[in-house]
């Protein structure tokens, strides 16, 4: 008689993957090489680690013990069991438990007066989400079935109203919400989830259609594998509601041109579909005239900001967008002989001191008091208004800049579309279609905003080596400059009614 196969090992993270999509878990277990990790995902992981360290300060004491995992699972389980059995009277961090092949590591385990324990799951999120409830329910199931006298389980998340006052005092950064009752309600679902997860791992690849679940609660790392990305113009390029796009994909459509135009109801999708089927860029007759109203000098402005979960400058709030860098190209128009006069200015301070005051002063100096200030989306407006709140004495000149702001995004959206933009009017999608040299994929290192924020924080870290800091500085300056160069290229292209040119 053949012995039954051992139950597959299940971690809490694997169960959360199965909760999102059984196919995701199968691929994680059998084909992890197919996954792609975005800079957003990496930043979320880093934020989680930072908040986890703060939790030890907030919920900790001098006798707290952290259970290392580096020495192996059995050692972690044994050390946890010994502390619990001996009535450890201080916090245990990363307490490790296993029941029926399901493993969890609890962020904070606190002893209660009179006996028993309370568990705290720590998240870098700003509120409790549905998958957090499932997370706590899994822990509740394992800890109680493993024999722990668990009284309550709660989730601690970031309070975005917290203002850091300095001195490494983060009391108040985290808010606790008791999820014990919810965890108890979900116990039957946890059992079902465990069964489904085991089937997903041991069986064939689950027949799971694509859909909105591919992006919730996290964008799946296997999206490019499951969605038909190999087509010349993938269906995702129609944009909009993911569930609707998934319906077309699940019906067999791979390319935008496979979709029947009669099935499209939005004007934007019809426009994308028509241009893609025609195979040509669409430039409206009014593209050139759209910029005739703007005098010279013309300013092209872009900020880079940071928004860490754990603030490190006094006065900062969690996830507050704080500007740390800007780039500005100034176009003075054609001079003698028709030669264009374009100059570049920039600001970046990697000393580690709060740069916002100097950044604002230099910005006011650079932009002067007249001339349109082009931006791409309204983000720059929010940043400048934030600076005005920080520095009331600069509110007047900063307010004057706000009045001069011109958002390029709606202008470009109204007058231009190229099939290679794949349904996006982002600056990264538009710029290489008007100037091949302005392709962000060619940038080494930092090539998007999240990476720029992470790069800045790494650069000001005292432990970063001088060589690495220099490398990051070069990449930060190049990336921010690239954004304003791209805006100049886009405006020049549309002003010339489609005659591509390259910024020198």
Shape: globular
What is the number of helical segments per DSSP (H or I, 4+ residues)?
Answer: 17
Q: Helix proportion of residues, in percent?
A: 40-55%
How far is it from the N-terminal to the C-terminal residue, by CA? 77 Å
Number of strands: 14
Q: What's the average pLDDT? A: 93
Radius of gyration, Cα only, in angstroms? 27 Å
| Binned strand content | 15-25%
Low-pLDDT residue intervals, each spanning 5 or more residues: 498-504
Largest sheet: 7 strands, mixed
Structural class: alpha/beta
Structure characteristics:
504 residues; alpha/beta; seven-stranded mixed β-sheet; five-stranded mixed β-sheet; 16% strand; globular
Q: Which secondary structure elements does this structure contain, and how are they paired or packed?
A:
Layout: E1 10-11, H1 12-20, H2 22-30, H3 39-58, E2 65-66, H4 73-85, E3 92-99, E4 102-111, E5 117-122, H5 130-145, E6 150-158, E7 174-178, H6 180-185, H7 187-202, H8 223-226, H9 242-250, H10 267-278, E8 282-283, E9 298-306, E10 322-334, E11 340-348, H11 356-367, E12 373-375, H12 379-390, H13 395-404, E13 405-407, H14 408-415, E14 416-417, H15 427-434, H16 449-459, H17 466-495
Parallel strand pairs: 1-4, 2-3, 5-6, 9-12, 12-13
Antiparallel strand pairs: 3-4, 4-5, 6-7, 8-14, 9-10, 10-11
Describe the 3D structure.
- With 504 residues, the chain is of the alpha/beta class.
- It contains 17 helices and 14 strands.
- The strands form 3 sheets. Strands 1, 2, 3, 4, 5, 6 and 7 form a 7-stranded mixed β-sheet that branches. A 5-stranded mixed β-sheet has the order 11-10-9-12-13, with helices on both faces. Strands 8-14 form a two-stranded antiparallel sheet.
- It is globular.
- It starts with 9 loop residues before the first strand and ends in a 9-residue tail after the last helix.
- The relative contact order is 0.09.
- The C terminus is likely disordered.
């Amino acid at each position: 008689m053949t012995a039954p196969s051992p139950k597959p090992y299940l971690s809490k993270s694997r169960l959360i993957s199965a909760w999102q999509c059984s196919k995701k878990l199968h691929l994680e277990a059998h084909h992890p090489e197919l996954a792609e990790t975005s800079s957003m995902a990496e930043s979320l992981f880093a934020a989680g680690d930072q908040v986890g360290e703060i939790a030890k300060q907030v919920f900790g004491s001098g006798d707290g013990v952290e259970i290392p995992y580096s020495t192996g699972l059995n050692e972690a389980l044994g050390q946890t069991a010994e502390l619990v059995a001996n009535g450890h009277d201080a916090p245990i961090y990363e307490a490790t438990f296993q029941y029926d092949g399901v493993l969890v590591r609890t962020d904070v385990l606190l002893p209660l007066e009179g006996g028993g324990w309370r568990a705290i799951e720590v998240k870098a999120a700003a509120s409790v989400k549905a998958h957090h409830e499932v997370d706590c329910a899994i822990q509740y199931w394992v800890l109680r079935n493993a024999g722990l006298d668990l009284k309550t389980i709660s989730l601690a998340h970031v309070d975005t109203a917290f203002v850091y006052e300095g001195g490494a005092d983060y009391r108040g950064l985290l808010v606790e919400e008791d999820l014990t009752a919810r965890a108890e309600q979900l116990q039957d679902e946890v059992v079902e989830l465990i069964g489904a997860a085991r089937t997903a791992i041991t069986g064939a690849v689950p027949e799971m259609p694509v859909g909105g679940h591919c992006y919730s609660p996290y964008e799946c790392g296997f999206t490019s594998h499951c969605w038909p990305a190999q087509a010349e113009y993938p269906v995702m390029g129609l944009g909009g509601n993911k569930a609707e796009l998934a319906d077309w994909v699940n019906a067999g459509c791979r390319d935008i041109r496979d979709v029947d135009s009669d099935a499209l109801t939005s004007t934007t999708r019809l426009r994308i579909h028509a241009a893609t089927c025609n195979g040509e860029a669409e430039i409206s007759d009014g593209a050139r005239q759209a910029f005739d109203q703007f005098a010279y000098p013309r300013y092209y402005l872009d900020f880079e900001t940071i928004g860490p979960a754990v603030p490190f400058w006094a006065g900062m709030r969690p996830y507050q967008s704080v500007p740390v860098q800007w780039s500005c190209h100034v176009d003075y128009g054609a001079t003698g002989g028709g030669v264009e006069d374009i100059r570049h200015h920039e600001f970046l301070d990697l000393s580690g001191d709060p740069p916002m005051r100097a950044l604002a002063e230099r910005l006011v100096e650079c932009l002067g008091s007249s001339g349109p200030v082009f931006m791409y989306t309204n983000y720059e407006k929010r940043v400048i208004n934030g600076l005005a709140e920080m520095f009331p004495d600069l509110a007047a000149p900063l307010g004057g800049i706000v009045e001069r702001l011109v958002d390029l995004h709606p202008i470009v959206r109204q007058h231009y579309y190229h099939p290679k933009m794949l349904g996006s009017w982002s600056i990264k999608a538009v710029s290489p279609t008007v100037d091949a040299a302005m392709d962000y994929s060619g940038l080494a290192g930092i090539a998007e905003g999240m990476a720029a924020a992470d790069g800045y924080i790494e650069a000001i870290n005292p432990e970063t080596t001088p060589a690495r800091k220099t490398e990051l500085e070069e990449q930060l300056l190049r990336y921010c400059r690239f954004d304003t160069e791209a805006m100049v290229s886009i405006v020049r292209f549309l002003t010339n009614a489609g005659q591509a040119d390259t910024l020198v």
